[in-house]
Design goal:
With 699 residues, this protein is of the alpha+beta class. The protein has five domains: 85 residues; 116 residues, Beta Barrel (OB fold (Dihydrolipoamide Acetyltransferase, E2P)), CATH 2.40.50; 97 residues, no CATH class; 48 residues; 154 residues, 4-Layer Sandwich (Metallo-beta-lactamase, Chain A). The protein is built from 24 helices and 22 strands. β20, α23 and β21 form a beta-alpha-beta unit. 30% of the residues are buried.
């Protein structure tokens, strides 16, 4: 214990800053303190710390732990404060505090338009709100979807200002179990509203609002894409991979191909990460060490290397993982060139501290988490793994180095991958051995292509070489993905199980590295806790009985769940293993550990539209029909209405004595609004799935 942890605290002083700041960020997210209380507490602790310094030296030495405690509390408050300040909803200028329905808003298009299947999407900044004759200056962002049939959308570009006359909508989650939390994701990017615009809902203003540096980045990005498109075959998988690999442009990627890269454990190749920046850093050092006037001046070399690294980071979109690498490499470059080398742990802690002070919501970014966990895992475990085997041959030794790096990176990252993605690529080791060097070669060839694009003959040959190399990459990945044992998927993981698994890995790793008997016993205890937790979860799911009406726009989707089995009722398109099922239904089925789709459930009895699940009666209505008043009302627990049937709630209420009406996502919003109004007048309970999220009830 002494050989590992004490030197770590001494060599990584930024770690002492990072931990309390991270605690403060988490506390502010969970408890939402207001600014006055944060500042008041900061003043009190600062006064207490200053008063402590006035005490005699003997007293300060005796109670030095109190000084450390006060410093940590001040750092916790720093975490609280930066998180509070980053939340734009606390700004008096945020448009959401002043906006009312029917207001006009003037916005600036903040990025080039992105083409979707049925619309064009863009992020916009709200500059002004128009209340009748009053204009109020505001700030804040929203997402705009332009109708695709609007011919006047295409000329829109970054910096254009438009006037919108359309009510904004708050961003909401689907509410489907296990689904991606889009509301929280958008909130972390300080976006809380979106709007869908037809051509009659907006007008283009003469005024423009352009940031020169952002315009330079967008123009450069577009020029790079044009070079790739000009020298490679357009509209194919090779070009889309080239765009993603070089500058992180992922809009043209085929979803099935991306899934294949993910299934084989090499999706980090096409998702710009620290690996790309490391390769570029190595290339820059090699180049600038061979240019005489740069080599002689450390200051000039540092400026050139850092400028290139940060330009690449910003061109790729400034994701958290790439910013982590940019900050860390900046520390390394400055340290190496000015003879102030520091511990890699300190560099990691320093970069995390800087990034979290800049944007505390990076803490929840999956790329940020995986990036730091991968590097930390490599730093701790790569050398011990490498020294397990001595390889005399030079080239085989390089392969073994790559194997040890890949294995080490997985140790700390696989629990997070299980939690977020519910799958584990069994063949990750083999694919990484092949794909990491090959993708590095492709990256260098692409950089060469862009650098010499002004020479047609060379750029044409380089473009063909790039195409063939990526074609080979894709073929290898698709072959690995076709193997029946390539992927272990549908793995259910909770926050509790992930934390237990991490505790087990840390104790086991410490035991193996330091031969600690205490760590060995603790790892066995944690393994037992993990088994008990898993067994309890399985026992719970084996006895579950639920009804889920999923929130899938324009589609009927219902699951009757009994234990680990489920019967699906809904549109046939959702039976296909496509985007709709993977995005809306699959996460919930994994979270609930549903393993078998069946056509018959013992507890479920169907008679045309009427279903009886145990003692609950559920009526499914998805066609128009006329009901005749009955002498005695029929008792049902739930009536699920789908697919816009022509019916009237008062007529249904005259026949059925229903506990709750449920309107699913296949219905039009205007019809749901009419049915809800009828329910309110009749004092009937109702539930709108498109507005309130998926309907989930235990039966």
């Amino acid at each position: 214990m002494r050989s590992l942890w004490i030197p770590l605290w001494k060599k990584a002083p930024f770690l002492r800053l990072l931990i309390p700041v991270t605690i403060g960020i988490l506390l502010q997210w969970c408890l939402q303190f207001d600014r006055q209380n944060i500042l008041l507490a900061a003043i009190c602790f600062a006064i207490a710390f200053a008063a402590f310094q006035l005490l005699p030296l003997v007293v300060r030495f005796k109670f030095q732990i109190l000084q450390g405690f006060l410093l940590n509390l001040i750092l916790v408050l720093l975490g609280l404060f930066v998180t509070y300040q980053k939340d734009i909803r606390h700004s008096y200028k945020w448009f959401g505090n002043a906006y009312r329905d029917s207001d006009y808003i003037a916005v600036t298009i903040n990025e080039p338009l992105l083409e979707k299947n049925k619309s064009y999407k863009a992020e916009a900044v709200v500059d002004n709100i128009l209340h009748n004759d009053h204009i109020q200056n505001t700030t804040g962002k929203l997402i705009i979807y332009f109708e695709k049939d609007s011919a006047n959308v295409l000329p829109l570009k970054y910096g254009d200002k438009i006037l919108i006359n359309k009510n904004l909508q708050e961003i909401k989650n689907s509410g489907n179990p296990g689904a991606f939390n889009y509301h929280r994701y958008s909130a972390f990017h300080q976006i809380f509203h979106n709007v869908f615009l037809k051509k009659s809902d907006w007008v283009l203003l003469d005024e423009k609002n352009i940031n020169s540096f952002k315009q330079f980045l967008f123009t450069t990005r577009k020029n790079v894409l044009n070079i790739l498109q000009k020298n490679m075959q357009e509209n194919d998988d090779q070009l889309s991979i080239a765009e993603a690999l070089l500058i992180g442009y992922t809009q043209d990627l085929d979803k099935d191909l991306v899934q294949a890269y993910s299934n084989t454990g090499v999706v980090h190749i096409i998702a710009i990460s620290g690996m790309h920046l490391a390769l570029i850093y190595i290339m820059l050092v090699w180049i600038f060490n061979r240019i005489p006037f740069i080599k002689r001046s450390k200051i000039i070399k540092v400026i050139f290397i850092l400028s290139c690294l940060w330009l690449f980071s910003l061109l790729t979109g400034g994701a958290a993982s790439i910013l982590r690498s940019a900050v860390m490499f900046s520390c390394i470059v400055i340290g190496e060139n000015f003879a102030r080398k520091t511990s890699i742990y300190n560099s990691l802690a320093a970069s995390a501290f800087i990034l979290l002070c800049y944007n505390p919501y990076f803490l929840w970014d999956v790329g940020f988490q995986l990036s730091y966990l991968a590097v930390l895992s490599i730093v701790i475990f790569q050398k011990p793994l490498y020294h397990l085997l001595y390889v005399k041959n030079k080239w085989l030794n390089k392969v073994w180095v790559l194997v040890s790096v890949s294995l080490a990176a997985q140790i700390f990252t696989f629990p997070v991958c299980l939690y977020y993605f519910h799958q584990f690529p069994v063949l990750f080791l083999f694919t990484n051995i092949i794909m990491v060097p090959l993708s590095g070669l492709v990256l260098f060839v692409e950089i060469f292509l862009v650098s010499f694009a002004w020479m047609p003959f060379i750029s044409a040959l380089t473009g063909k070489l790039t195409w063939w190399l990526i074609w080979l990459m894709n073929k290898i990945i698709l072959w690995f993905n076709s193997l029946p044992f390539a992927l272990w998927d549908r793995i259910s993981a909770s926050v509790a199980s992930t934390l237990i698994l991490y505790s087990f890995i840390i104790c086991t790793g410490y035991w193996l590295l330091n031969k600690s008997k205490t760590a060995f016993r603790l790892s066995l205890l944690l393994l037992l806790v993990f088994v008990i937790n898993t067994s309890y979860t399985k026992w719970q799911t084996a006895s579950q009985q639920k009804l889920i009406v999923y929130n899938v726009a324009q589609h009927q989707s219902i699951d009757f769940i009994n234990g680990n089995s489920y019967k699906f009722i809904g549109d046939s398109v959702l039976l296909e293993d496509g985007m709709l099922q993977n995005f809306h239904l699959k996460p919930g089925r994994i979270a609930l550990q549903l393993s078998k789709k069946v056509d018959f459930l013992p507890a479920l009895h169907q008679n045309n539209y009427l279903c009886q699940f145990n003692d609950k009666k559920i009526l499914l209505i998805d066609t128009s029909f006329v009901v005749e008043p009955a002498q005695q009302k029929i008792n049902v627990d739930y009536i699920i209405i789908s697919k816009n049937p022509k019916l009237y709630i008062p007529q249904l209420a005259a026949v059925f004595n229903c506990r709750q009406f449920i309107f699913d996502g296949s219905n039009s919003l205007w019809k749901i609004a009419k049915w809800k109004k009828d329910c309110e007048q009749l004092h009937l309970r109702c539930y709108s799935v498109p507005e309130q999220g998926a309907f989930i009830v235990d039966l």
